[in-house]
Amino acid sequence: MTQSDSLNRPYEECGVFGVWGVPDASALTALGLHALQHRGQEAAGIVSFDGERFHQHKGLGLVGDVFGDSRVMATLPGTVAIGHNRYATTGGTHVRNVQPLYADYEFGGLAVAHNGNLTNSATLKQALVKRGCIFHSSTDTEVFIHLIAISLYTTVLDRFIDAVKQVKGAYSLITLTPDDGLIGMRDPLGVRPLVLGRMPGHEQDNGGWVLASETCALDIIGADYVRDIEPGEIVVINNDGLRSLRPFGDQGGRFCVFEYIYFARPDSVLEGQPVYEARRQIGCELARESAVEADVVVPVPDSGVPSAIGYAAESGIPFELGIIRNHYVGRTFIEPTDQIRNLGVKMKHSANRPVLAGKRVILVDDSIVRGTTSRKIVDMVRAAGATEVHMRITSPPTKHACFYGIDTPEESKLMAATHTLEEMARAIGVDSLAFVSFDGLYRALGHANRAEGARRYCDACFTGDYPIQLVDKEGNLVA
């Protein structure tokens, strides 16, 4: 994936996974990361603990590239492990930024895996550097490492709580220590996801616990879903079992609504809501709100598929796979000229000409960011012989940048922030363009309207309503 590609779609920062008290913990962690590959494709890492020593391996690339060799897995013994998939929103793509990050303290080792983004990381880093802290990476995750190091509290858990009380942002954390064991946490508003699972057969002992960004990572290893970690909750898993702490009290929750629209895998269940069904219902709402005469409903794969199924069912227009995705495309490896660069979309998507030729086509996609990818897809569909192209988007217009762990361009580069609906339609070359309404989105998620649903979700990328203070932005600081 190139930087230009990354600005054409929103990208999640990463996925986290941890397991406690299970043989071959690192192998289970690698499987869990494989299930979470959609949350980050730039790098992967695992840290394991064998009861005496920590072991780690990490590298750039997909999980299969980094952990596909059995000799690598043999270097990660132990019944406890945590892992991380990375997509960089802060810091560059360098091995030094690959998580989990590990550090040796006076109390022993500590590893941390972090999903999300801190909105005061630059402010904290500036203060920490003045105190003499030396940063070895450019990721905001390292802030946790230093805050724990300088804390005056005695126990590791108290140091951890002291650290998280100083940060602001949207995050899920999994930390591994020798004494306190596995520590999992979601930020006080629960913007980023984290779920708790249990391996079958461990109900009578203290082992078999699993923490993961999504339930699909539990499924791949045969773990049972227990519950979502609550906003602001800390769970501590060790030989004494599992205990829960709530140092922030109850501040409600503002779960990222884009998880349902695009990020999460459709077979995951988040906050009690099946992602597939949420997307299908969004498609139904779109069909009710923005009906148009057409011959076929075609998803832009893969996230558009469930919504296109819902749109087709509600409208009575046939669903067809008019665009075929190449699932074996990784990074775009040749880009010597603009001509070759513009062929990049054809490496990922191909038009199914017999389905499209002579047809009035409704394209269903999850979002429009800069509009360049949408334009290329529309051009491809028209070149395949479509007589009309109507685009339906399963999110409201993306008008604002995200500061909570989603890689989006600055607002001046977001098409919806600088164009009217009619201008957008002309720019991407469609006969009509419509986005799901706010009320339609929240109806699809089981609420009466946005006024009711927005109290549970963060939709700042659509509304500019940021529920967590943007400390660094307000101070014009860059992490």
UniProtKB/TrEMBL annotation:
Signal peptide: none annotated. It catalyses: 5-phospho-beta-D-ribosylamine + L-glutamate + diphosphate = 5-phospho-alpha-D-ribose 1-diphosphate + L-glutamine + H2O. Mg(2+) binds at residues 303, 365-366. InterPro entries: GATase_2_dom, Ntn_hydrolases_N, PRTase-like, PRTase_dom, PurF, PurF_N. The keyword Magnesium applies. In the C-terminal section; belongs to the purine/pyrimidine phosphoribosyltransferase family. This is Amidophosphoribosyltransferase. It comes from Gluconobacter albidus. The gene is purF.
